[in-house]
Amino acid sequence: MLIVDDDFQYKEWLRHHLDVICPQASVSMLDLSEFERWCTSVSGRDCDLLLLGCRFGASPEDPQSQGLSLLRRLRDQPAAPAVIAFAEDGNELTAVRALQLGAVDYLPKRLLTPERLNTAIRVALHRVERRVARRLASLAHLARDRANAAKAAPQAPEVPGAPPPPAAVAEALPAHSVMALLTAPNGEEFIPGYTLRLKIGESEKAVVYLAMSAARGHNVALKVAKTLRDDAAGRQFLEREYTSVLTLKSPLVAEIYDYGVHAGFEYLAMEYLPRGDLKARIQRGLNEEEALRYLEQIASALQVVHQGGLVHRDLKPPNVMLRENDSVALIDFGLARPLEGGTSSVAQTGVLLGSPYYMSPEQALGEQLDARSDFYSLGIIVYEMLTGQKPYTGGTALDVLQQHVSSPPPQLPADLARYQPLLARLLAKNRGERFESAAEIIAVAAELTAGATSETQSSAA
User: Fold this and answer.
1) Residue 142: is its pLDDT beyond 80?
2) Full 3-state SS string of the chain
3) pTM of this prediction?
């Protein structure tokens, strides 16, 4: 999903509601000038749903109607996304014209509520699903035709060391990477010394590419800021991440290789971990022993982070990567701050930073944070690993945050009751009742693991 608007706080409001409505979605944000370049540089395949906020003018002929102009440009793309228009002005005539130009819905900004947004998103996603179903059916038909043609054709001898054919590459990549392969600037050296292979991730502030490092001779994850560096604003977000992680020398934290600025854009080269993240691993299902092993490793990673004088502030499954040996490595320290002093960004700017699902009560309230805020986020992850569900959900981001602050701690099912004391200490509303250190969590996890192993052995006997 892509949010386009020049009002940063409005974009953040939309993004947090999307995090609740569509927690599985990848959400990016652009301003209108960046979106103008986006329209000319990409095919549209890397975006399924566009939330477009701009002026729609006083009539369909109004030359100030930037929204209608952009809808016309999108209509001409071979794979245009579904569009929900958010009009700063406009009227019934511009609304009708927007729908004629392909918008799924047209909503005046002044009348937008979480409920109306929810309804519009659901309607748009139904259209996206129908489009994807048609595309998959077409691809399946094409694959059958190619398979039949391959059976009929003589087989070429296999050359040792030759690269796999494009179809084999596509089949070996996850679905989101296949889509990126179709649109990434393959072979482009946008940042000197790094050859971009494909896009592997995106946030509201940066794009992450798989890239070949000429200096290192192997692939790295290259994070590139979407906006120009603003020297007047002080330290930049990728610079903060670089300096934060540079001191954390541990296999439990993804290694950072390089930081720089090219053509006004920050970039950060880091360790590439192709096995994926904990979010995808939870979706495939975990047993108790696996959940406890990840708990102990994440707690050990937090111990490294806290001993380095930092609080992560954005601990969630997508920021827990997995190595080839199934050990964890924390990433994304863009929101990390020193343990000593400083309040969360919501108190300073009025904009909520982080994920509503994993925020501690004190973070939701904009209070000063310490290591115990990360422990609360870990507790949410533990509940999710054990049950496959998030403990707090709601129709809006505000609903979820209010539950973190005031709802009773979540209760595990009866068959998982032995983990309730651990969960209670991680998710206590009062941080004074939580674990004091990561070492305490590691010790409790080790005890629970020993107990689970004994039960398994007794059952087998």
Assistant:
1) no
2) CEEECCCHHHHHHHHHHHHHHCCCCCCEEECHHHHHHHHHHCCCCCCCEEEEEECCCCCCCCCCCHHHHHHHHHHCCCCCCEEEEEECCCCHHHHHHHHHCCCCEEEEHHHCCHHHHHHHHHHHHHHHHHHHHHHHHHHHHHHHHHHHHHHHCCCCCCCCCCCCCHHHHHHHCCHHHHHHHHHCCCCCCCECCEEEEEEEEECCCEEEEEEEECCCCCEEEEEEECCCCCHHHCCCHHHHHHHHHHCCCCCCECCEEEEEEECCEEEEEECCCCCCEHHHHHHHCCCHHHHHHHHHHHHHHHHHHHHCCEECCCCCHHHEEECCCCCEEECCCCCCEECCCCECHHHHHCCCCCCHHHCCHHHHCCCECCHHHHHHHHHHHHHHHHHCCCCCCCCCHHHHHHHHHHCCCCCCCHHHHHHHHHHHHHCCCCHHHCCCCHHHHHHHHHHHHHHHHHHHHHHHC
3) 0.63
